[in-house]
Amino acid sequence: MANPLQLRAEVLANHPEGAVHRLVLHAPGVPQRVRPGHFATLAVGGANSALLLRRPFSIHRADPAAETVELVIAPRGAGSRELAAARVGDRLDLLAPLGTPFPLPDGPVSALLVGAGHRAAPLFALGAEIRRRGGQVGFVLGAARADGLYGVEQAQALTQDVLVLTEDGSRGLTGRAADPLGEAIDAIDAGVVYAAGPTAMLRQVTETAVERSVRVHTAVEAAMACGTGFCMSCVLPVIGADGRSRFVRACTDGPVFDGARVRWSDIGTVPPDLEGAAAMGVGA
Ligand SMILES: Cc1cc2nc3c(=O)[nH]c(=O)nc-3n(C[C@H](O)[C@H](O)[C@H](O)COP(=O)(O)OP(=O)(O)OC[C@H]3O[C@@H](n4cnc5c(N)ncnc54)[C@H](O)[C@@H]3O)c2cc1C
Ligand code: FES
């Protein structure tokens, strides 16, 4: 874990952006600890709420000079709706940074960044960091409809190689983000792929990258309870460096994993050959 801080972060801005809200939070001490791929958790509901669990959100941007972190909130259930409605001056109970960030390339590489809807939120700071290190980036951004896309302009500010897809064809090509992956890898001669999105997309992205012998780092979005490694509610089956499969925690061992090591088709099951959480009774 990345030595997180817990503090009451003041809401400096709440920008509605299509179907989501971008919150800018004053979080002194946090931004300098953040690397692309880290996430934060926020308390919801107040002291007497039935909403016991903190809600996890990727850190979209972190600005040490301004002492801010930005989160992109898609209103879904009670917790995210409350956060999306936060007003300037409100104070939110923030714990960050959490998780294991995206591994950064050592030198200048060509990297393809693939994101689905608002789940693409952590990819833009990653793209900027890769550019800062002398690398090149390309983006593939997809969503069901045009209003579900996130960050197209941010991607275009980093590179001309931005491919946009919607499932209903309302913007860009018709299809899903993972569909044109092979061509997109070839087009920029990508040496590494980074992906953030739903499990089915991450699996498809991984399969295509592995077919082309390209490294692939995937940011998974597992349902989380504690977010800090204690409850084991977020485990998924991953093949270790020793070739043995174990349940590992998405919140502390991830959320970023080498896609080639994730047993995508076994997520949500308890395969008999696994070590780790299964042996501890989780999922039994
Ligand atoms: C590492 C990580 C990063 C995330 N980053 C973002 C982000 O940048 N922006 C964003 O809007 N959301 C993000 N999420 C999802 C977000 O945490 C959930 O949407 C939120 O916790 C739902 O809480 P709720 O109270 O609104 O809804 P609930 O009432 O708890 O659930 C409402 C709906 O959301 C679904 N849901 C609940 N938890 C999750 C989850 N962890 N992942 C996916 N679906 C869930 C439920 O199945 C249900 O359909 C992230 C999740 C994780 C684990
Ligand atoms: S959410 Fe509790 S261990 Fe990961």
Count of DSSP E strands?
A: 15
CATH architecture of the largest domain: 3-Layer(aba) Sandwich
Report helical residue fraction: 10-25%
Number of domains: 3
CA(first)-CA(last) distance: 27 Å
Order of helices and strands: EEEEEHEEHEHEEHEHEEEE
Largest sheet: 7 strands, mixed
Mean pLDDT: 92
Rg on CA atoms, Å? 18 Å
CATH topology description of the largest domain:
Rossmann fold
Key terms for this structure?
alpha/beta, Elongation Factor Tu (Ef-tu), domain 3, Rossmann fold, seven-stranded mixed sheet, about 30% strand, binds flavin-adenine dinucleotide
Q: What do these coordinates show?
A:
The protein has 284 residues and is an alpha/beta fold. The protein folds into 3 domains: 5-98, Translation factors (Elongation Factor Tu (Ef-tu), domain 3); 110-219, Nucleotide-binding domain of ferredoxin-NADP reductase (FNR) module (Rossmann fold); 223-284, no CATH class. The chain is built from 5 helices and 15 strands. It has helices at residues 78-84, 123-132, 152-158, 181-188, 199-211; strands at residues 5-17, 20-26, 39-42, 55-63, 68-73, 91-98, 110-116, 136-143, 162-166, 173-174, 192-196, 215-219, 235-239, 245-249, 256-258. It has a 7-stranded mixed beta sheet. A 6-stranded antiparallel beta barrel has the order 1-2-5-4-3-6. It is globular and about 50 Å long. The two termini are 27 Å apart. The protein binds flavin-adenine dinucleotide and FE2/S2 (inorganic) cluster. Flavin-adenine dinucleotide (FAD) binds at residues 39, 55-58, 72-74, 76-80, 118, 121, 221-224, 255.
